[in-house]
Structure formats: C-alpha cells, structure tokens
Design goal:
The structure is a single chain. The chain has 151 residues and is α+β, with helices and mostly antiparallel strands. It is built from 5 helices and 6 strands. Strand 4 and strand 5 form a beta hairpin. The radius of gyration is 18 Å and the shape is globular.
C-alpha cells in the first residue's frame, strides 16, 4: 500500500480490526520511510450499481460522491469523519439489501437526508436545501418548521 504522505510503497500493517457493522476491515498502517500512520479500509467488492440521475442519465455508483456531499453539508459542524463514513456504510448496506442493479439518485439522497436528520439538524437543512433545490426563504422556513414538529 502506497503511503499518502510520502508515496513510499514500504508500509506495514500495525493493527487490523472489523468496523462496528462488520462490513469492512480497518487497517492501521505505518510507513517505514516517513514513520507516519494512516488507515485503510478493506471491503467486499459490490456488484456494479448504476444510479439513475434526475435527468435520466445513468452513472456508476460512487461512494466518494456520497461522502463529498455529506462533508459539504457538515462543514464547520461537530461531525467527525468516522460518523460520515458510517453514514456512507449504512447507505451502502441499504443499497445492497435492495438487490437492484439500478437505483434512483433521489432514493440515495433521501437516505442521506434521513441519516443527517438524526445526526446534525444544521447539516440536514444544508443538504436538504441543495438536494431539494430550495428556491426561496419560505422553503427553508417550511423545512425548519417541519423539523421542529418532528423533534
């Protein structure tokens, strides 16, 4: 495994353990060149899942796009990368349970929204505002009002 800090291929595993959901193995690695530590995750390779976007185009499911969207919504919020990774893991488990070869992007977005709603309400409103394409302040107000009545 190549070190993300110095690029050396001389690394070793110092610790391995399953993630909480037993869906992956987390490996702590040490670079023998620069002595920095980093983590890698090993997970089973899923079947090729295609995402049907709003304009009916299709693209391969990309975990990094899901994580990127969540990271943007959680910017400057007290949400750790471990929590964000867990949301991505939970979404992938749910998508695998469907057993479908294609899934609508709207379904994935709703899964993200539900996870964020329980994790951080500000991140939830941020994500929802982009995902649901809020057009004005009334849209924000309505969403916050719904959030308050749900709590």
């Amino acid at each position: 495994m190549k070190c993300p800090f110095c690029g050396s291929k001389d690394t070793k595993v110092v610790d391995s353990r399953s993630t909480e959901d037993d869906e992956a193995i987390r490996r702590r690695r040490l670079c023998n060149n620069c002595n920095k530590r980093f983590s890698t995750y090993e997970r089973y390779e899923d079947i090729c899942l295609m995402v049907i976007k709003k304009d009916n185009t299709r693209e391969k499911y990309n975990r990094n796009k899901v994580i990127s969207g969540i990271v943007k919504a959680c910017e400057k919020r007290p949400v750790s990368m471990d929590q964000i990774e867990q949301i991505a893991n939970d979404i992938e488990v749910e998508l695998n349970r469907l057993g479908e070869k294609e899934v609508a992007s709207t379904y994935i977005g709703e899964l993200v929204i539900e996870k964020l709603k329980t994790l951080d309400q500000v991140a939830y409103v941020r994500f929802a505002s982009v995902y649901r394409e809020f057009k004005d302040l009334d849209s924000f107000y309505d969403e916050i009002k719904n959030l308050r009545t749900d709590s």
